[in-house]
Amino acid sequence: MSWSSKALAAATALILCVGLIATFAVGSTTTRNLAAHWPGGEHPRIAWDETARSGTPYRFELSTHCGVNYARFSHRWWEATPPAPEDREKWGFNFSWGTMTLVDDERATFTSDKGNNMVNFVPVPRDMLLGDRPARRDVTGDLVAYSCA
Known about the structure:
Elements: H1 3-36, E1 57-63, E2 68-73, E3 76-84, H2 88-91, E4 95-104, E5 107-112, E6 118-123, E7 129-130, E8 133-137, E9 143-145
Antiparallel strand pairs: 1-4, 2-3, 3-6, 4-5, 5-6, 7-8, 8-9
């Protein structure tokens, strides 16, 4: 192998190493934040099991498949008050992007990117959870899993 071939191979290896190091160094702290800003950009996003700060709007993807009924946000399930029926023109198909804001320990608000669509949420009472999912009482009073949450 000639001197120029060795130099080219070494330079290529160095560039790849620097690229990998930069990817892991930056990715370890910011990849989640970068992904959180898509789509929308200006608001952070948190996982459902992270604690939201009161008054901070977070990017949120709200399930609208069976209407707007429940949302999993800031360590718990929330119930829409009042629930909103499925409306693809208003909310989109299956999901709606927007922001979720923890107002206080007992209230959260979702605001859709599609306009002025807003839903208020209250925590689902612990006795209305079946395992880790929201539930409803059937006609006999038994607790049954809610299937569209």
